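testing teh design pipeline on a random one, pls ignore if ur not involved
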């Protein structure tokens, strides 16, 4: 499974925020174990990618600038996490939460980063790409913070 084009519809816990993807997306979730993502998610950050032009979102979304280059968003009513998004550079697509979409139950894991930072209770098995903090940050020098 790799990038696909199609229509997906999802929503937050209360249903006030509705997400529609009508175009290019990669329905394989990736995992991040950095400290920022652990703090935001409570332990593990799980997301999948959709291109900026493919995504439409309706409802009360609150945005938080988590770094100088990215924002995280959640439903202003129920608090469900909606996305993490790079705001600088050519690619300003969305890293969306798979749990918002019913179809996600069958999606295989694509990748895992900051594996050396994973909480002991959240160590994932499987055949997917992995990178430690040092390996990931060496390929992404713009990242600074408490990874």
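output:
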């Amino acid at each position: 499974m790799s990038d696909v084009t199609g229509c997906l519809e999802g929503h937050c816990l209360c249903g006030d925020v509705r997400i529609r993807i009508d175009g290019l997306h990669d329905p394989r979730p990736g995992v991040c174990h950095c400290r920022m993502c652990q703090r935001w998610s409570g332990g593990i950050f799980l997301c999948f990618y959709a291109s900026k032009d493919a995504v439409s979102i309706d409802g009360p979304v609150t945005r938080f600038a988590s770094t100088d280059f990215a924002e995280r968003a959640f439903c202003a009513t129920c608090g469900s996490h909606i996305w993490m998004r790079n705001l600088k550079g050519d690619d300003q697509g969305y890293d969306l939460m798979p749990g918002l979409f019913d179809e996600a139950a069958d999606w295989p894991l694509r990748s895992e980063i900051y594996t050396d930072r994973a909480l002991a209770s959240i160590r994932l098995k499987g055949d997917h790409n992995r990178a430690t903090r040092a390996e990931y940050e060496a390929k992404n020098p713009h990242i600074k913070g408490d990874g």
